[in-house]
Amino acid sequence: MSRPADAGPPGPDTRKGDYTRRLERLEGVWWKRLLDVQRPYRWNLHRLDLGRTLDIVCGLGRNLVALAVGSIGVDHNPTSVAVARSRGLQAMTPDEFGATEAFRRATFDSLLLAHVIEHMDEEAGRQLVETYLPCLRPRGSVVFICPQERGYASDPTHVRFVNFGDLDRLADSLGLQVNGRYSFPFPRFVGRLFPHNEFVLRATTSS
């Protein structure tokens, strides 16, 4: 396999420490910690039963904490990777991951791309997923999670609104079979008002 794709959105800001600090500020808001607002989203990942997962663009490791033992996060922002590691999580830059046996062999049950595709144009998103597909075991899963309208509008680093139709086309272009899609945590119409409503789509490889 060739060098892994740059696991992150193409914009230069997402590679810098300022972007990491922004994520930390958003994550550290007092009421979010008090209410444990991530609990429903961790539960959602648990129920997907993803097994050993490669979390592509893992950021600070928010999803890694809910994934199975042996899961790995990859991100192109070295500052974010350092924060994830400081939390006891296994996170790497693309170059670091590319030098591991995990990259060279099909060792993962699932790929997770949570809040990634909307930061990239269509072709860049397809190429990113395509690069990491060989890391999957036969009949492995690929899970996409994208924000709905209100959430999309809340982040200036978003470049493309991605809905179920877009995700269906992406899966088809990669030779994946879609076997589940739903709006979480609330019905689809809530996404126009609630910034944390998400599109969730699961697909599997054909072999």
Could you characterize what this model shows?
This protein is of the alpha/beta class and 207 residues long. The protein has a single domain (12-204), classed as Vaccinia Virus protein VP39 (Rossmann fold, 3-Layer(aba) Sandwich), CATH 3.40.50. The chain has 9 helices and 7 strands; from the N terminus they run αααββαβααβαβααββ. The chain has helices spanning 17-27, 30-35, 39-48, 78-86, 94-98, 101-104, 122-132, 149-153, 164-173, and strands spanning 53-56, 72-74, 91-92, 108-114, 136-147, 177-184, 198-204. A 7-stranded mixed β-sheet has the order 3-2-1-4-5-7-6. The protein is globular. The model has no long low-confidence stretch (mean pLDDT 88).
Structural class, judged by helices and strands?
A: alpha/beta
Secondary-structure element series: HHHEEHEHHEHEHHEE
Named CATH architecture:
3-Layer(aba) Sandwich
Q: Which residues form runs of ≥5 with pLDDT under 50?
A: none
Summarize the structure.
With 207 residues, the protein is an alpha/beta fold. 34% of the residues lie in helices and 21% in strands. It has a 7-stranded mixed β-sheet.
Chart the SSEs and their pairings:
Elements: H1 17-27, H2 30-35, H3 39-48, E1 53-56, E2 72-74, H4 78-86, E3 91-92, H5 94-98, H6 101-104, E4 108-114, H7 122-132, E5 136-147, H8 149-153, H9 164-173, E6 177-184, E7 198-204
Parallel strand pairs: 1-2, 1-4, 2-3, 4-5
Antiparallel strand pairs: 5-7, 6-7
Summarize this structure as a short list of keywords or feature phrases.
207 residues; alpha/beta; Rossmann fold; seven-stranded mixed β-sheet; 9 helices; 7 strands
